[in-house]
């Protein structure tokens, strides 16, 4: 194998695929990049951790065909090269890889590509399509709410739930860690009649969000034989689905409210961030909201540091109410909203709060209160 390539383009490909590499694995090949040339003047770079894989196609000047697995240190070597033009060569007898750039010359010990674990064969059926920009936004507004705890595997991913009626086909993307819940829906192009529910790991969606564009170009996503698969112009990403049962959460979502507040999104976010500085110490980050006629009073109190009280002007419907919340949860959802105003809906001091962007029915977020009264 021998090829010539620009450093910046190679770095972009390595940065994208690096996230698919196994950080701690007893199989040495999975701790590196699988490089393979094709007859179409393309270099493919593959990383795989037995759960998720990323494949990047890079147009390249190919002088001699070949393949090799290079260690993760290859990333740092390319990053530190002095010139933009890079020449990579392989000695097929001993898998020694040479990297030349300017006056710098590296030799790296590679591994036999024949010993790289076989990638899964994914059937390209059971798919749907939606615009790249819509996909990015849906992932952005839901994936942060997944659980970081492995004790409930279903909650470590985002549920894809499909439904249809006479007018359109729809997907609901739902994420929860059992203390909060993010729910976003959107229309899809459903040429293949996809239906049912699937749980996609957050790790895969996090990487997908980085590789899809911000255009209205349709992107296909496959949910087939236990795998999630997506293909963009240069990147192929696949991941095992989470084989767990996602609970029915419809019953925990309040259908009515006794108190409704409309407030400026950014003003509320800034106030909550100030309050969080003096929130009750510990994992709950407690901030209290006291709602009266046209005023939202936000207070926080740390016995060892101090306290804060701040008043915000609001529009209110319904009863006065006081509630304690985890400030971190409120701040995180406000950060992913684009609308100027949000609606806060309450059914009581010890019942879930709903946050909705005003005049946008495609998204809502539920947060459980903290018992602090």
From TrEMBL:
Major subcellular site: cytoplasm
Function: Confers DNA tethering and processivity to DNA polymerases and other proteins. Acts as a clamp, forming a ring around DNA (a reaction catalyzed by the clamp-loading complex) which diffuses in an ATP-independent manner freely and bidirectionally along dsDNA. Initially characterized for its ability to contact the catalytic subunit of DNA polymerase III (Pol III), a complex, multichain enzyme responsible for most of the replicative synthesis in bacteria; Pol III exhibits 3'-5' exonuclease proofreading activity.
Source species: Natranaerobius trueperi
Occurrences of domain DNA polymerase III beta sliding clamp central (ranges): 130-248
Gene symbol of the encoding locus: dnaN
UniProt entry keywords in alphabetical sequence: Cytoplasm, DNA replication, DNA-binding, DNA-directed DNA polymerase, Nucleotidyltransferase, Transferase
Subcellular location: Cytoplasm
GO molecular function: 3'-5' exonuclease activity; DNA binding; DNA-directed DNA polymerase activity
SUPFAM superfamilies documented for this protein: DNA clamp
GO biological process: DNA strand elongation involved in DNA replication
Name this polypeptide is given: Beta sliding clamp
Superkingdom of the organism of origin: Bacteria
Xref: Pfam families: DNA_pol3_beta, DNA_pol3_beta_2, DNA_pol3_beta_3
InterPro entries cross-referenced by the UniProt entry: DNA_clamp_sf, DNA_polIII_beta, DNA_polIII_beta_C, DNA_polIII_beta_cen, DNA_polIII_beta_N
Keyword Glycoprotein: no
PANTHER family assigned: BETA SLIDING CLAMP, DNA POLYMERASE III SUBUNIT BETA
Family recorded in the similarity comment: Belongs to the beta sliding clamp family.
């Amino acid at each position: 194998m021998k090829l010539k390539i620009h450093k910046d383009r190679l770095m972009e490909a390595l940065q994208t695929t690096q996230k698919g590499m196994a950080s701690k694995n007893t199989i040495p090949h999975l701790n590196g990049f699988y490089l393979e040339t094709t007859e179409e003047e393309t270099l493919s770079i593959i990383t795989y951790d037995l759960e998720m894989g990323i494949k990047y196609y890079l147009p390249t000047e190919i002088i001699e065909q070949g393949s090799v697995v290079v260690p993760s240190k290859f990333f740092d070597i390319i990053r530190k090269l002095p010139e933009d033009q890079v020449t990579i060569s392989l000695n097929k007898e001993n898998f020694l890889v040479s990297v030349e750039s300017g006056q710098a010359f590296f030799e790296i010990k590679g591994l036999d590509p024949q010993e790289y674990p076989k990638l899964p064969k994914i059937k390209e059926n059971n798919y749907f399509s939606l615009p790249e920009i819509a996909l990015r936004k849906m992932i952005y507004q839901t994936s942060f709410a997944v659980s970081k705890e492995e004790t409930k595997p279903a909650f470590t991913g985002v549920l894809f739930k499909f439904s249809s009626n006479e007018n359109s086909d729809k997907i609901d993307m739902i994420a929860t860690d059992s203390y909060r819940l993010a729910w976003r829906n959107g229309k899809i192009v459903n040429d293949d009649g996809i239906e049912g529910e699937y749980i996609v790991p957050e790790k895969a969606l996090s990487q997908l969000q980085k590789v899809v564009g911000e255009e209205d170009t349709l992107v296909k996503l496959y949910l087939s034989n236990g795998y999630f698969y997506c293909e963009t112009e240069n990147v192929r990403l696949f991941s095992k689905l989470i084989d767990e049962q996602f609970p029915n959460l419809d019953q925990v979502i309040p259908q009515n409210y006794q108190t409704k507040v409309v407030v400026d999104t950014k003003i509320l976010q800034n106030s909550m961030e100030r309050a969080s500085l003096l929130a009750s110490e510990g994992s709950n980050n407690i901030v209290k909201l006291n709602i009266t006629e046209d005023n939202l009073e936000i207070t926080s109190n740390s016995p060892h540091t101090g306290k804060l009280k701040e008043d915000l002007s609001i529009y209110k419907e319904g009863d006065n109410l006081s509630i304690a919340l985890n400030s971190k949860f409120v701040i995180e959802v406000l950060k992913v909203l684009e609308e100027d105003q949000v609606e806060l809906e309450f059914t009581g001091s010890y019942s879930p709060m709903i946050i909705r962007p005003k005049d946008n029915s495609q998204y809502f977020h539920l947060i459980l209160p903290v018992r602090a009264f």
